[in-house]
Amino acid sequence: MNKDILKALTKRILSSVVTLLLLISFLFILVRLSPGDPTQKFLSPDFSPELKQQVMADFKLDQSLTEQYLNFLANIFQGDFGVSYDYRMPVLSVVWQFLSFTLVFASISFVIQIILSYYFALKSIKKSGRVLGKLLSKTSLVVYATPSFVLGVFLIFIFSAKLDMFPSAGLKSLDFDSFSFFGKLWDYIIHLTLPIVTLSLAGIAMFYKYLRDNLEEVYRQDFILNLRASGFSESTILKKHVLPNAVRPLISVAGIELGILLGGTLITEVIFGLPGMGRLMMASIFSRDYPLVVGCAFAAGLLMIFTNFIADLVKMKMDKRMIKGLMN
Amino acid sequence: MTRKIVTILACFLILFLSSCGSENTSKSNRVVIGIPADINTFNPLFAFTVDEGAITELLYLSLADFRWNEKQGELEAFPMLAKSWEWAKDSSSITFHLRDDVKWSDGIPLTVNDVVFSLDVYSDPVVDSRLYGIFEDLYMDKKNHIDVKKTFDVKSDYELQINFLPNSSPDLIDIVHPVIPKHIFEKYDRKDLATAKDNFSPVTNGAFVLKKWDRNQSITLAINKNSFLYNPDNINELVFRVIPDYTSRLTQLKKGEIDLMETIKTGDIYDLKSNKNIVIRSIQGREYEYVGWNNIDPETYNEKRELSPNKFFGNKKTRIALTYAINRREILEDYLYNYGELAATPISPIFKNDIDQDIKQYNYNPDMARKILEDEGWTDSNNNGIIDKNGTEFEFTLTIPSGNPLRPYEATIIKNNLKAIGIEVNVETMELGAMLDDIDSKKRDAWILAQYVPIPIDLKSYWYSDLQNTQLNFVSYQNKKADKIMEELTVHLPKDRQKELYYQFQEIIHKDQPVTFLYWMADIVGINKRVKNINITPLGAITHCWEWAVK
Predict the structure, then answer these.
(1) Given an 8 Å threshold on Cβ–Cβ distance, is A43 in contact with B125?
(2) Residue B17: which pLDDT band, with cuts at 50, 70 and 90?
(3) Residue A41 forms contact with B (CB below 8 Å)
(4) Average model confidence (pLDDT) for chain A?
(5) I need a labelling partner for A130 at 20 to 30 A (CA). Which of B1, B19, B71, B297 fits?
(6) Which residue of B144, B216, B462 is in closest CB contact with A50?
(7) Long-range pairs for A172-180 at CB < 8 Å and ≥24 separation?
């Protein structure tokens, strides 16, 4: 069995590497073929026309696409993604600056999404047919259908502009450094409350719908009736039989959702002025910062593959029959 | 159990409500400015964006500085690192006498060696500085690198003579740029200057020093108490807060979390005016909106690299007719709430001495437009509502960049205005970068864009006939008479002659109408009333901030 796992694991890693390579190669070519170039910002009376030519040569953009691609391949196999044209720093350092925030921010949101959706789905099932159950179902639809830019602006308007309870943007206060440890922690909490609510609500509604439907379906199965007839308590039925069956389909969705969150949460980041991957990627595309676009795509792709892999491992842990299928 | 949880939560809530709330800037003698994007360097060599330029100029001083003379409508130089300077009688050189009390923030005195080093590095082709290629009046090598030996004559640590090429036409503004520390940057290979660590923790000589940089969050500058510009009555801290979303920036301005924000949309002015803490100011005459008519045929140019007149816009009378047909005042009044003024030529009204006030606008007159077009042979021969000439219907695509709601509004008005005289306009929205690429390669027929104008006036970069070297002549305008004027204007002239030439140029461009000049747009600035001494001029809002005070 161990040998099988090792073989499957190697195969999975190799296929992931190929996927990533294809992704960044595709992007490398696509950004260069699309209109515009990084020297467009030098189209100004403030700069001489010679500067544009000089920068083109220094960025090696005057080489053929094949030459550029071969150099790029040679460099990435040494872990060198180049230097960002805008940030004038190695691409991976820039990506890490933004990714570190996104990792924490997205993970907190993800955990909240899972916990609250689980809680509400159970509540809704228990109160099925009653007012609370119906209310939760209707509300989840409304929340899921509300775009995050509307929700974010609405929350800022109510809780920041009108009630003055939370700051409207930013990650921390200007006087952050003068705060105590708990003061700093509190400062982060009040700054991140509205962004996390904005980011999480749609996810909670989505997971809630999935989980509730799955729970309902499992509860309708004959074996549950059988278990009840055999005298098992509701709590045992839920924990041992209903949940494992209901949660399994959700894990794949959760893996994808986490991957998307880690790839950047553009709208929330822009509205609340947070330094995340979404903003970085958008800015790099608009300024035609080719190495940074590829670096961002690489990080997002890597995280997507990783979270899916983790989701598969969790599924495998729950059902050992799935090892081969999942690994392949 | 539930009660306990509720009690704990209630305690937290009380604690929370008592401790949070708005973060306002009135705590200290600090001014906070909201900016949409972070900067990427503190090194003036690479300060390519407007905000990078504004911030680095607070950290690094130049030999001289400039103020805007409102009455004369021109720049006025005043001493900064140099306490005085004198020109040779034949303008072949200039001698600067530097202050001897200026020290870098690490305590090392600033001398002329720093000035020489700075200009040397600015012009070095391996550096790719923002000033590369602009030192036309100095002695240069083949790669446009300043010849240090011929150009600089170091008289002492505080006296420097700069020599110019014979028969050149040097100007002070061309040679005074932020001075960088030689002792810091000389240790780097010049190729690596762009990525130098000292670009991010800079040693500076300005009115401010960098206190803290929270990347993508805020930049905090503290007043430099050792600077000769220091005044204890003025602000002691200046913060640039990065807030990418316009609405969030506006909310923070209203709440007092930031004190100043630029590029306020006209639709928000009414609301801001009702806020007793905010005052609205505007920067006039630095940017005009225009409809670009490609004067040449895109297909012939791109297929054969030949210039032939555009079938619609190659004729100046047709272009004048189009200007007559567009109701510019309607857009100015209804969308911009008159924050701006109609434009007639590319010479901004801020240049009071040089603008020809007698030039008459082609005011909205569809009948006149119809008549001109008819005289030019454009008639609706097949009664389909679209005018035609030699079998070609007058139908074209107007390209606008995405992202600014003003542009679709303008495009709709223009489309309707032109439809009324029998011209069919198809509006196409493109991402700005992609659109610029197309316009630069002359692929588009017509477009709407804004043009930022430099100070002092620069016409040659936009309107000169040499299309290979005039990168901003997007419409491919060509006029030999205008070329001669622009050539003459590149050298120093008596003010009267200069004015005469500018008047002649305006007359030519008005008659040729290479583009439809729509209006000069104002940059609207919202400022918290507690901030005093802000001098809003065409040079911008964020200049000479060390003179600001908080009352």
Answers:
(1) no
(2) very low
(3) yes
(4) 86
(5) B1
(6) B144
(7) A172/B214, A172/B217, A173/B23, A174/B23, A174/B25, A174/B30, A174/B32, A174/B218, A174/B220, A174/B239, A174/B241, A175/B23, A175/B27, A177/B212
Q: Residue B50 has which token pair? A: 């407007």
Question: A190 touching B, CB under 8 A?
Answer: yes
Sign for the CA dihedral angle at A311, A314, A318, A322 comes to positive
Can you read off the two tokens belonging to residue B66?
Answer: 């400039």
The gap from C-alpha B138 to its chain's centroid, in whole angstroms, comes to 25
Report pLDDT for B5.
52
SS3 B180: coil
Q: How far apart are CA A290 and CA B460, in angstroms?
A: 32
Search chain B and give the residue with CA nearest A268: B245
Least confident of A146-150, B97-101, B267-271: A146-150
Closest residue of A to B36, CA-based? Answer: A273
In this complex, the residue of A43, A87, A175 whose CB is nearest that of residue B471 is A43
Contacts of B328 (CB under 8 A, 6+ apart): B342, B364, B516, B518, B519
Q: How many CA atoms lie within 13 A of B67 on its CB side?
A: 12
- pLDDT of the residue at B258: 95
- Round the CA-based radius of gyration of chain B to a whole number and report it: 27
Find the distance separating the first CA and the last CA of chain B, reported in whole Å: 53
Say yes or no for a CB contact (<8 Å) between A174 and B194. no
A175 touches chain B (CB under 8 A): yes
Q: Which residues of B touch A98 (CB under 8 A)?
A: 216
Contact B202, B42 (CB under 8 A): yes
What whole-number distance in Å separates Cα of residue A85 and Cα of residue A94? 11
Of the candidates B422, B423, B444, B452, the residue with the CA atom closest to the CA atom of residue B290: B452
Contacts A153 to B, Cβ<8 Å: 247
Closest residue, chain A, to B474 (C-alpha): A43
* Residue of A43, A49, A279 with shortest CB distance to B436: A43
Confidence (pLDDT) at B25: 43
Prediction ipTM score: 0.79
Q: How confident is the model at residue B75 (pLDDT cuts 50, 70, 90)?
A: very high
pLDDT tens-digit series, residues A210-232: 888 888 888 888 888 888 888 88
Which residues of chain B have a CB within 8 Å of the CB of A164?
21-22, 255
Query: If you search the block for the tokens 């622009």, which residue do you land on?
Result: B486
Q: What is the per-residue pLDDT across B434-471, written as a single tens digit (0 to 9) for each?
A: 999 999 999 999 999 999 999 989 999 999 999 888 88
